[in-house]
């Protein structure tokens, strides 16, 4: 009957009286269904939620979201308020102790608890639909968080405990939903406050979720909610620990890694990001091999339909996986930022004191870049290798967003009602990954072009060879396509756009210096030097613009630094060092910055970039020093619970600093070498 009533509402296009009658009919059927099934099944709200959204949208047309709520919604809210009031069972906190109940008493209490949870979910859903009135409706129709916490702690005294960790059925507690509701309320409250006063609600939410996980360690929704809160607090390492406790394995990595992978970058945990992304790449590689074997066995045994089903799954879902593409970009971006101290095989007594850029893999502006570039070019031929993202970017078209299969399981976040965590869209993931592919493709081409370059003799431009011409043309064409991609994926006047202009200018400098206008009379060494100087001067302006934008971005910039480091800072630093090698070949080395215009322009760019890196270092230090004052006035959790969360945040932020500072400090010191004089 609820479904029939909703169809009537959807098809209502007659006079206003008919619409009101249909809405009243739907409202009545929702109440009848809820009264019957809410005490019996926890899934009742999931059944009724779509119809609440239909009723809310039909009774509040678009454009009237700020006006007072309709009579239908008001009646539903009042009905739900009566429902949770009648089913509230806790008396006071001091009287709570473990009690033994008969079977009938326990069943009645659980039924009331289900109804109480359903009624609060009901109110939260309707309040969330009225965005501009959400807090007002919660205050008027929903119970206070203090009452919900009292009911949750009371439920722990009469509900059966969770099975032990060493075996048995891994159950969850019915009262866990109350903690999820409180965390939603607190996150919604925090989102409406200024950044300096939003910490306490988030701290309370994290402390409640930690306490709930102690009682119910097998509830995945508690873990997912806790991860979301910790990520808002900048505690990526604690969020990663919780993710690992969930035991995500095999195909779940492709559907659930989105919960943590982007946040590992913003938390500076680059080694963990590479490890998780590499696991996803191995999953897809092994799945491709396994499906070939099992499809062949299915054909041999006469199960033609199963063979076709497996091959279709591989072609339509696994090979074009969106998460696979994103993981390739992450591996390429973070390869040079691997921290050997994070490797599992290294014990605490064997910690490596110095952490350097490109110690294990990746391009970092050193002599090893030549061999690594050649290896990247070889590895890019395999679809399940990370360097393949370079080929995918080179062959991409504007319609390729729809080509990739979004296998992420968003249904696991169904408990989010008031506050919904924003995840990357499919378009954002594709454009970001393809831009990473373009960036590393340009890095590889630039390194290989510089390696093939020849030094000038007697003040004349070097003769061009087919190999040099081919490598420079490849670099130029790839830059043109990458620039088009950057226009689509980067916001105008953003730091990323300014950084991209610096990077592309350095690519142009390499092409101009190596080949210039080869074969023409106007092609001279001085002409090439002057063209390079103009490009480098434009790059300096872009660096200064990026630095100004960064310094005006407010206090909470730690996550931005962690994101800029692999995306922009390391590629630009690598290009500066690669350009310096080329200039040394042409007699424009670092020590000649006062006598050679090109050397001076590159030194000016390097020192401007060093100033930006120094600001990034200072921002990470400020990010680490943020402290939270613990208040004893909170009525939801005790001081011990809050201190536990604060310690986790401080430890996570300290780990972020330890994994970002060494690389920034190394680049800052290396760039100082451009101040040397003859």
Entry summary:
This protein is an all-alpha fold.
Layout of strands and helices, then pairs:
Layout: H1 2-10, H2 16-37, H3 44-59, H4 71-86, H5 103-129, H6 134-141, H7 145-155, H8 176-191, H9 199-215, H10 220-232, H11 236-245, H12 252-256, H13 261-266, H14 270-300, H15 304-318, H16 322-334, H17 369-379, H18 388-394, H19 426-452, H20 466-489, H21 495-514, H22 525-551, H23 558-585, H24 597-625, H25 639-671
Helix pairs in contact: 1-2, 1-3, 2-3, 3-5, 4-5, 5-6, 7-8, 8-9, 8-10, 9-10, 9-25, 10-11, 14-15, 14-16, 16-19, 17-19, 18-19, 19-20, 19-21, 19-23, 20-21, 21-22, 21-23, 22-24, 23-24, 24-25
What's the number of helices?
25
Q: Give the CA-based shape.
A: elongated
Strand content: under 5%
Largest sheet: none
- Give the helix/strand class: mainly alpha
Give, in order, the helices and strands: HHHHHHHHHHHHHHHHHHHHHHHHH
**Rg:** 30 Å
Instruction: Please count the beta strands (DSSP E, at least 2 residues each).
Output: 0
Poorly predicted ranges: 162-169, 345-349
* Percent helix: 55-70%
Determine the mean pLDDT: 86
Distance between the termini: 88 Å
């Amino acid at each position: 009957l609820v479904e029939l009533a909703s169809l009537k509402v959807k098809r209502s296009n007659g006079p206003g009286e008919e619409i009101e009658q249909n809405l009243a009919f739907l409202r009545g059927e929702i109440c009848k269904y809820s009264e019957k099934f809410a005490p019996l099944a926890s899934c009742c709200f999931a059944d009724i939620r779509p119809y609440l959204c239909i009723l809310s949208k039909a009774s509040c047309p678009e454009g009237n979201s700020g006006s007072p709520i309709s009579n239908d919604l008001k009646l539903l809210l009042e009905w739900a308020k009566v429902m949770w009031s009648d089913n509230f069972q806790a008396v006071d906190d001091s009287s709570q102790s473990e009690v033994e109940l008969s079977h009938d008493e326990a069943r009645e209490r659980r039924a009331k608890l289900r109804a109480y949870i359903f009624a609060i979910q009901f109110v939260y859903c309707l309040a969330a639909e009225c965005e501009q009135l959400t807090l007002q409706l919660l205050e008027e129709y929903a119970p206070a968080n203090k009452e919900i916490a009292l009911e949750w702690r009371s439920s722990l005294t009469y509900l059966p405990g969770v099975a032990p960790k060493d075996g048995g059925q891994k159950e969850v507690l019915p009262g866990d939903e109350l903690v999820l509701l409180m965390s939603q309320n607190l996150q919604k409250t925090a989102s409406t406050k200024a950044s300096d006063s939003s910490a306490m609600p988030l701290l309370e939410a994290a402390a409640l979720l930690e306490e709930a996980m102690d009682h119910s360690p097998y509830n995945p929704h508690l873990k997912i909610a806790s991860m979301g809160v910790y990520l808002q607090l900048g505690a990526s390492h604690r969020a990663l620990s919780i993710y690992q406790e969930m035991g995500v394995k095999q195909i779940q990595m492709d559907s659930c890694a989105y919960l943590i992978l982007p946040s590992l970058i913003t938390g500076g945990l680059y080694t963990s990001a590479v490890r998780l992304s590499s696991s996803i790449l191995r999953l897809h590689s092994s799945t491709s091999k396994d499906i070939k074997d099992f499809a062949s066995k299915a054909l041999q045994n006469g199960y033609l339909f199963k063979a076709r089903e497996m091959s279709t799954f591989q072609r339509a879902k696994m090979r074009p996986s969106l998460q696979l593409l994103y993981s390739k970009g992450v591996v390429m971006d973070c390869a040079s930022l691997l921290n050997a101290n994070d490797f599992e095989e290294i014990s605490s007594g064997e910690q490596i004191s110095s952490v350097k850029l490109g110690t294990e893999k990746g391009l970092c502006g050193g002599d090893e870049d030549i061999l690594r570039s050649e290896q990247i070019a070889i590895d890019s031929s395999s679809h399940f290798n990370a360097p393949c993202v370079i080929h995918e970017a080179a062959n991409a078209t504007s319609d390729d967003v729809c080509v990739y299969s979004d296998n992420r399981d968003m249904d696991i976040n169904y408990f989010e009602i008031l506050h919904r965590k924003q995840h990357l869209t499919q378009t954002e993931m594709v454009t970001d990954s393809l831009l990473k592919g373009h960036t590393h493709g340009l890095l590889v081409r630039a390194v290989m072009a510089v390696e093939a370059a020849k030094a000038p003799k007697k003040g004349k431009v070097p003769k061009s060879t087919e190999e040099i011409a081919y490598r420079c043309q490849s670099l130029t064409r790839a830059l043109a396509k990458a620039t088009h991609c950057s226009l689509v994926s980067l916001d105008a006047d953003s730091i990323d756009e300014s950084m991209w202009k610096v990077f592309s200018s350095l690519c142009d400098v390499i092409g101009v210096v190596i080949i210039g206008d080869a074969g023409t009379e106007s092609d001279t060494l001085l002409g090439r030097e002057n063209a390079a100087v103009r490009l480098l001067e434009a790059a300096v302006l872009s660096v200064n613009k990026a630095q100004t934008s960064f310094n005006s971005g407010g206090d909470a910039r730690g996550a931005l630094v962690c994101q800029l480091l692999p995306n922009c800072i390391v590629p630009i630093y690598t290009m500066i060092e690669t350009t310096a090698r080329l200039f040394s070949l042409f007699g424009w080395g670092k020590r000649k910055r006062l006598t050679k215009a090109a050397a001076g322009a590159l030194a000016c760019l390097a020192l401007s970039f060093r100033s930006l890196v120094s600001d990034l270092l200072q921002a990470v230090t400020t990010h680490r020093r943020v402290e939270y004052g613990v208040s004893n006035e909170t009525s939801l959790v005790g001081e011990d619970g809050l201190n536990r969360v604060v310690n986790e945040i401080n430890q996570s932020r300290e780990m972020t600093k330890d994994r970002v500072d060494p690389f920034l400090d190394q680049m800052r010191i290396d760039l100082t070498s451009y101040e040397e004089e003859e």
